[in-house]
Structures are given as C-alpha cells and as structure tokens.
Amino acid sequence: MVEAEKQGHRKTEVQLGNVNPETAVVDAPATPIAEPELEYVPDGGKQAWTVVLGSTLALFASAGMINAYGTFQDYYESTLLPSSSSASISLIGSLQVFFLYAGGPLTGRIFDAYGTSVLVPLGSVLCVFAMMMVSLTEKDHAYQLFLSQGVLFGLGIALMFNPSVAVVGHWFRRRRATAIGVVLSGGAVGGIVFPILLQHLIPIVGFGWAVRVIGFIIMACFILACLTIKTRLPLSRHVSWRTAIDLHGFKDIRYVLATIAGFLLFYALFIPYFYIQIYASFRGVSPNISNYLLAILNAMNVPSRILPGMLADRFGPLECFIPASAICTILVLGLWLPSRGAGTIVAFAALYGLFSGAFVSLLATYIATITPREVYGARLGSVYIFIAVATLIGTPTAGALLNITDEEHFNSLIMFTGVLLAAGTVVLIGAAVVGSERAREKLRGRFSRS
C-alpha cells in the first residue's frame, strides 16, 4: 500500500461528498513514467467492510425514519393531531426529505474538507435529540412536531446522509456500486423495522415511550456508526463553497431535461409512501394487513437499491430509468386507482416499492454520464436543489387534495400522482431522444470529415 501511494505519476481520487457518490479522477502532475497506475484502494477487507457496516447503520437509523413516516402520518391524523389537515401533517415528513437533498451540496463540501469526524457525530446527536423531543409532543400541538421531527431531525439527516455514503468511495473502486447499494439498502431496512415496531409498541406503552424506544435504538446505531465510519484519503482542510453548485450544466439540453424529469418524478415519488396506509384503512383493509403495507413497500425497496446500478452499468441509466418510471406510472393509474381490496393494495405496495426505489440512484447515474467528472458533484448538487423543492411541496400538495377522506378526493390524489409520473417519464424519453440525436450528429460529422 505504501509503495502504491508513493508512485511518481498516478491518478488521484477527488472526493465528491455531496453525491450519491462517485469518485472522479484527475491527473496529478509529477515525474512522467511509462504507464500511470491507479492509486491503491482496498476494495474490500475487514476495515473497508466495517465502514460499510457503519454507514449502513447510519442510514438505517436516519433515512429509515423518513421511509417510516407513513406510519407517523397515519397516527398523527387519527390520534395525535386530529385538528390538523393532512397537508400540514405531511409537510412534517417532507421537511426531512427537503433538508436531506438541499443540504447535500453544503455537507459535501464540508466532507471533502474535514471528513466524517464532525458531520456524523453532530448529525447523530441532532437525530436522537429530535426523537426524544417528538416523544414529548402534546396533543394538537403540531408546531412541536414541525420543529422536532421536521426541522431538527431533518437537519440531522442532512448532516450525516451524504458523508455516510460518500465515505464508501474512499474504500472501494471496483466493488463501489455494490458497496453503495448495500449502504443505501440500510434506509429501506429501517423503513421495514420502524413501522412494525411503532405499530406494536404504541398499544402497549403509548406513543411517547414507543418513540423513546426507537430513539434508543437509533442512538445505538449512531454510536456504532461513529466508531466505524472512517475516511482514508487525504482531506483538503479547506471548504470551497464556489464548487458546491455549478449552473453551467443548464447549457446542455440533456441536463435541463434530466432536471425537469427529476423534479416531476420526485414531486410524486413519496406520495404513496405517505398515504398508502391511510388509503388501506379507508378501504376497510384489516389493520393486520394495513399496518404492514409500508414495511412491504420498503422491503421491496431493498433489491431496487442494489440491482438498478448494476443494470445501468450494462444497459445505460436511461435504458433502466425510463422503464422504471413508466412501470410506476402504470402501477399508480392501473393498479392503485382501481384498487378496492387488500390483495390489489398489497400488490401495488410491493411492486411500487420494487420499481420506485431505483429513482434516486439512476438519476445520479445519468447525470454522471452527461457531466465532466471534475464538476459532477457540483452539477448533481444543482439538480438536488430542484429535487429538494419537489419533495418539500409534493406530499403537502397531495394532502391538500385529500382535505376530505372520501373516494372522490382519494381518486384526485392518485390521478395527480400518476400524471406527474407520466409527465416525468415523457421528459426522460425526450432526454433519451436528444442524446441519441447528438450521437447521430457526431457520427455524421466523423463520416463527413473522412
């Protein structure tokens, strides 16, 4: 390892902390030799996989709580916040997602400068403290949940999500897609465990202690994460905010179309996560089934966090992204909209979880294919600003459509979701067409020159 790191001419990895991370390489000036060698990367081993374990636990305890918010939404509407509208309650959960994406460019720059030594511990403290404050919420005091679960927990997730994923790039190159897929699956597993745990604990110990138990569980996970997540590459020790966002990508029509498609798709993405359990209860589905719908949806998310990246490497990101978004559109309009019984609702939850989980990784992967490596992080950060806005207003808009819980308003919510997904799919197809036209133009230019 020492000898590999001392090679006179090598390619030096640049940390892109604010992404679903990829690692770029740039040539480092030095004494030229015949064949440059890549810098040593462990690509496995005890220490590398220990970091993966810590990052997985961090996402289990943070992103897992976002994926479990549908259970909180159901309880808040029925018991804790009966005087609040569905739109205002869903805003609590959407704030968490907003901070996750909006904070990405900033936490990425801090990660590049100082690693995980500050961000992960600070984010852990905020998340645990926020859940303890949630456990003290009084009935019909919605502002307490906005501040604790929405803002404070959202800030905690923003501080630790991107660094926990980005650090994997320090330890893996060839197996990076697999390692990052394992880490991202931690959030899906949390979305399985926490809804079930909450549903079982509330009748036994009440909401306050049920949330405290979850708070102690995530605290244990965060402690292990803080002890095991380590950076390996040299850190800059200098925060450069100028590289956090790059707007020059909007000169490329493919980048513009990808941003528009991302906005539309993420506007609708989380609506089923927040409302599927409420919809099942409205349809008279037994609590023995409806209480597990969110867990089923998140369980099917696990393979969709790992497989799409591998398929995209072989077939291309748009070749996987377009079918996934098209299938989600069909599922919403063709299965969720006409669903009346438990069987069709369960089938929708499982299939939507399977295909919608690909959105996050495939959007980032496509941006990487149309962006120079040296500005990839900043360009993705620019897209994430629009994604953050979409996630902030998406589920509250759906909640506003459901101001009365009846069939007409639920149909409006579902059709709204389906139309957004369909529009996003059409824009993705447009990006593919533009990309293919550019390829044909390049070929024509080469043939004309020859």
Automatic annotation (TrEMBL):
<dbReference type="InterPro" id="IPR036259">
    <property type="entry name" value="MFS_trans_sf"/>
</dbReference>
<dbReference type="InterPro" id="IPR020846">
    <property type="entry name" value="MFS_dom"/>
</dbReference>
<dbReference type="GO" id="GO:0016020">
    <property type="term" value="C:membrane"/>
</dbReference>
<dbReference type="InterPro" id="IPR011701">
    <property type="entry name" value="MFS"/>
</dbReference>
<dbReference type="Pfam" id="PF07690">
    <property type="entry name" value="MFS_1"/>
</dbReference>
<comment type="similarity">
    <text>Belongs to the major facilitator superfamily. Monocarboxylate porter (TC 2.A.1.13) family.</text>
</comment>
<protein>
    <submittedName>
        <fullName>Monocarboxylate permease</fullName>
    </submittedName>
</protein>
<dbReference type="InterPro" id="IPR050327">
    <property type="entry name" value="Proton-linked_MCT"/>
</dbReference>
<dbReference type="GO" id="GO:0022857">
    <property type="term" value="F:transmembrane transporter activity"/>
</dbReference>
